[in-house]
Amino acid sequence: MKNNILFIFVWILISFRSYSQLDQILTEIKPLNILSESGKGSVYLRVSKSSNYILTFHSSLDSDFIYMVYDVFNKKYITDKIRKRDIKLELNKDILYAVIYVTSENVSINFTLTDLDLSIISGNDLRAKSSNIKKQDKTFLIKDLPSFQLGSKLKRYILRTYNRSIYLAYQMEHSDNIKVSSFIENIGWFDISTAVNDNITNIACFDFAVNSKGELYVAFTTKNTNDFFSELIVKKFNSRKWIDISPKFRDNIGFLVSISIDKQDNLYVAYLRKIDSEYKISFVANRGYGSVWNNIMDSYTSKGNANVNISSIGVISEPFLGIFYNYKINDYVNSEFIVDTGKSWANANIQSVNMANSVKILSNSKSDQAAIVLSCITKDRPVVSVSTFKCDKWQNVSPNIKIKGMVSDILIYRNDLFLTFEDDNNIRILYFEDDNWYFLNESEIFKKFVCRPQLARYQNEGFILSYLSLDFKVLFFSLIS
Questions:
Q1: 178 in the same domain as 114
Q2: Residues 92 and 190 both lie in one domain
Q3: Is residue 88 scored above 70 in pLDDT?
């Protein structure tokens, strides 16, 4: 058997140019997805800098997968036969390599390459331990605020703040109504109006934002039914009631929607629009002229099918426009961050991840080193990446831990980066300082038996952390400073 496999590898090596195509090259920026009909073949591999990398593969079938890596330039193998799903490799810049593999017939294979300097390693033998998160004698003050009592189970909520007001947009289970409630000190919680959606039913998804004047906006999508087309609807609160400023987009609207507002109070909405058989990212802007909207991105710019079962699209509007989204090609989910360069939309060179949830993008222009921060959860791991405004180089500063949860959030306060996430029915809070992650107030668990945390600034006094009871009937709030 060993001789047969060795013979196959030699045979593939002799003829691997017929199996590899130079327009299909695996890089640390671009994953590669192929369909191997014969189960034998090779793909090219090239990196932009000399470093240690992790080569990982995922196959559509749970079958044996054996591969070797060949240095085409120096005409030699750099590995023995490998059966593991990931391996550490030392690769040199601008050298062409070939991954020569043997597997079952008619298998879809996804290859990814991760720079070890920036990576979150999935292999147990390479994984960092949570004990790497440190503790230091730095005390944050914590004040519990009045909770928000719910009569039934909460399905979704979004936390926002403006000056000393706290806002919640929320939806209950078994109800289409989207409501917005406000908390004011010495007054408490109250619904500011009737339901945002009025008599509109079959709500699919919604997002909520507050501009610099305290004006409230809610965008939501509806489901396609036998009686009604799917719609994208945007409403603004005029201090008395919700008024419709929708772009009047009907039919072929997808599930997801996200809002962002820039410093000039321009409103941006990212949503999905079906083109042929796939859903693509669309991006429109309202510059304060009632219901007048402008397209600011061609739907064909996005890759693959963006109709992926995740919680959000990541959107940023300062200091530039950017969208982080998931897309599916050949049943494998990747992600991409694209930014508006002024002339066109371009890839921001951040490493793709598989099935990114709880996507959040922040910009920090007040620090000595202005930066973009992007966070998400993928494969049970919180991922945090930081880049300059040029998006020319990303540094992965993730805490490198495995968690049991799908919800996370980030916030910048006094130039420190805070990360909260749910983990096995508990809430944890970390902060990033001097290239290290620390537990808030040296507590590994901030709150027990709660879930779905969110963060929001609270003027200059600190920030609000919200979290939900496990029966989904009580929302709690803490002011941290």
A1: no
A2: no
A3: yes
Which of 69, 102, 126 is where one domain is finished?
Answer: 126
Question: Over the stretch 408-427, which tens digit does the pLDDT of each residue have?
Answer: 999 999 888 999 999 999 99
Give the domain CATH number at 151. Answer: 2.120.10.10
- Whether residue 134 lies inside any domain: the answer is no
- At 132, is the pLDDT very low, low, confident or very high (cuts 50, 70, 90)? low
Tell me the pLDDT band of 29, cut-offs 50, 70 and 90: low
Read off the pLDDT of residues 344-372 as tens digits, 9 standing for 90 and up: 888 887 877 878 899 999 988 765 567 88
Same domain membership, residue 190 and residue 49? no
Supply the range of the domain harboring residue 66: 2-126
Residues 222 and 269 in one domain: yes
Query: Do residues 122 and 146 both lie within one domain?
Result: no
Report how many domains make up the chain: 2
The answer to the question of residue 187 being in a domain is yes
The mean pLDDT value for 375-381 works out to: 88
HEC secondary structure over the chain: CHHHHHHHHHHHHHCHHHCCCCCCEECCCCCEEEEECCCEEEEEECCCCCEEEEEEEEECCCCCCEEEEEECCCCEECCCCECCCEEEEEECCCCCEEEEEECCCCEEEEEEEEECCCCCCCCCCCCCCHHHCECCCCCCCEEEEEEEECCCCEEEEEEEEECCEEEEEEEECCCCCEEEEEEECCCEEEECCCCCCCCCCCEEEEEEEECCCCCEEEEEEECCCCCCCCEEEEEEECCCCEEECCCCEECCEEEEEEEEECCCCCEEEEEEEEECCEEEEEEEEECCCCCCCEEEECHHHCCCECCCCCCCCEEECCCCCEEEEEEEECCEEEEEEEEECCCCEEECCCCCCCCCEEEEEEEECCCCCCEEEEEEEECCEEEEEEECCCCCCEEECCCCCCCCCCCEEEEEECCEEEEEEECCCEEEEEEEECCEEEEHHHCCCCEECEEEEEEEEECCCEEEEEEEECCCCEEEEEEEC
Which of 55-64, 124-133, 461-470 is the most confident on average?
461-470
pLDDT greater than 80 at residue 9: no
The verdict on pTM exceeding 0.85 is no
Residues 43 and 69 in one domain: yes
The CATH number of whichever domain residue 119 belongs to comes to 2.60.120.380
Same domain for 214 and 122: no
